[in-house]
Amino acid sequence: MSFADHPERHEFVEFIEQLADAARSFLSGRHESGRFETKEDASPVTEFDRGVEGALRAMIRTRYPHHGIIGEEFHAENPDAEFTWIMDPIDGTKSFVVGIPVFTTLIALCHRGRPVIGLIDASSTDDRWIGVDGLPTRHNGRTVRTSGRTRLDGSTVSWSNPEVVLEEHRAGREALNRRTAWRVFGAAAYGVGRLASGAVDLAVESGTVGPYDICPFVPIIEGAGGVVTDGFGGPITTTTRLTCVAAATRELHAEALRVLNG
Fold first, then answer.
1. Which Pfam families did the record assign (predicted)?
2. Of 54, 88, 193, 202, which residue is 20 to 30 A from 218 by alpha carbon distance?
3. Where are the strands (E) in the chain, listed by range?
4. Is 145 domain-assigned?
5. How many domains does the chain have?
6. What is the pLDDT of residues 72-94, one digit of tens each?
7. Are residues 123 and 164 both part of a single domain?
């Protein structure tokens, strides 16, 4: 049985929105947090990251005790389960710490390792994108599409973190930047949402991401007509790390991969 025919699909979609509502309620009115700790990978973490993830994990355990959970802040639980929930409680913690409102909450449901529902929730700007395998992507309840751009020349690209890029992508990053019309830096998952809505043409992550950073993008971008893979053209699953390239069309995605890996 494909996920499109799964009898609980509608229930799962309702539940992922309940999770996002809970995260938004926790973060409501909190547009900055000057207090943070530095993790082993040099990234920051706040009490709000841990608080949101803890609350969402508790909701999942109560509703679906046999499902797996993978999150950024705590150890994985039953990650080889048929259904696994993946979350990044605050994607863009650096922005959150200093009060720049482009941070988001990311949640995905994966079926046998493949993302089938994805959600990006930007509580500070009241934006929510949700994608479901086999259905059109919605932004605040309205169906959205990518820009449809097929050529790299003249396109726009959102780089999540310009400070970090894999060694094998360093030369490609500069080539990609030369070919595109202009770049947006530091938007993180918010940039991917804007790609789904047609505002930018490409979104690239290279060097610092885990599955919780990128699994939600798959149903969102594909449901809006775009293409998303890891930085080398492979599928994004619960084990994907380090890279992600999303594009408005298959043609643009293929050209961006060639340049990035050239």
1. Inositol_P
2. 54
3. 37-38, 44-45, 68-71, 83-91, 104-111, 114-122, 127-132, 138-139, 142-143, 156-159, 182-185, 202-206, 227-229, 243-247
4. no
5. 2
6. 889 999 999 999 999 999 898 88
7. no
Q: Partners of 128 in the beta sheet?
A: 121
Cβ contact 247:150 at 8 Å: no
Given a contact cutoff of 8 angstroms between Cβ atoms, the answer to whether 195 and 246 are in contact is: yes
Q: Which of 224, 238, 232, 223 is nearest to 253 (CA)?
A: 232
Mean pLDDT by 10 residues, the chain (262 residues): 84 98 84 55 70 95 98 93 96 84 95 97 95 97 98 95 86 94 93 98 88 96 98 94 94 97 92
d(CA 229, CA 250) in angstroms, rounded, equals: 11
Does some domain include residue 148? no
Residues 22 and 99 in one domain: yes
Judged by phi (left if over 0) then psi (alpha if -120 to 50, else beta), residue 126 lies in: left
> By residue range, what is the domain housing residue 104?
3-133
Q: What is the pLDDT of residue 96?
A: 84
- Same domain assignment for residues 99 and 173: no
Domain membership of residue 149 (yes or no) is no
Residue 161 lies in a domain: yes
Give the pLDDT confidence score for residue 58 in this predicted structure.
Answer: 98
Q: What stretch of H or E contains 193?
A: helix 189-196
Cα(20)–Cα(127) distance, rounded to whole angstroms? 11
Provide the pLDDT for residue 209: 79
Cα distances (Å, whole numbers) of residue 190 to 77, 100, 134, 186, 246: 27, 12, 22, 9, 13
Residue 250 belongs to domain with CATH number? 3.40.190.80
Q: Which two tokens stand for residue 98?
A: 């200093």
Residues 170 and 110 in one domain: no
Q: Check whether residue 42 and residue 114 sit in a common domain.
A: yes
Same domain, 9 and 104: yes
